[in-house]
Amino acid sequence: MAPKVNRKTEIIKSATLLFSQDGFDRVTVKRLAHAVGISEPALYRHFKSKEAIYEAVLESIQDRLEYTQLFESLKDEPDIEVVLAEMANHIIEFFTLNIDLYRLLLYSALRGHEKAKHVFQIVRGTYIKFLQKQLDRLHSEGRIVEKRNDITARCFIGMVFDCSLGSTLWRGFQGKVHDPKEVVDNNIPIYVRGLKT
User: Fold this and answer.
1) In CATH, what is the architecture of 7-61?
2) pLDDT, tens digit, 9 for 90 and up, residues 142-160
């Protein structure tokens, strides 16, 4: 007997791909239904509208991020260089493998979707808050100098996300393409020198 298909999950998966390729406005309910292999009325049994599907797709991003284990392994790490390197490598690897999520985030922000800010907070904000907490902890332990940890965390995570974008979506737009690991290996020591006591 074949395993039972979870239609809602299939719809979200197909919609994620379509919305990330073409944006919300260019994807029709008919196209979504066709991608899942069901009729439009069947799709409406699971979601009341295309907007509801889009919201479910944006909400599903958090489930895919897989940062729990990373954060657990770094919450007591005494070396700031290890914290920065592990976080950077995790973000770059994740978004290299899940380019659809990055495209989806950009489309939702450009469209001004009401959930775009919420999704930004879930994705980038989660990493920023965690890093700020680690910077605060490491400062209280006397391992790094006092800085505006909120700014440091935001700038570092922003650099890593931009590096991820550069190796995926912007590939070839900026002239020479640098390997993300090369960028991380080059920039982390700069941050570390500015932070260590």
Assistant:
1) Orthogonal Bundle (1.10)
2) 999 999 999 999 999 988 8
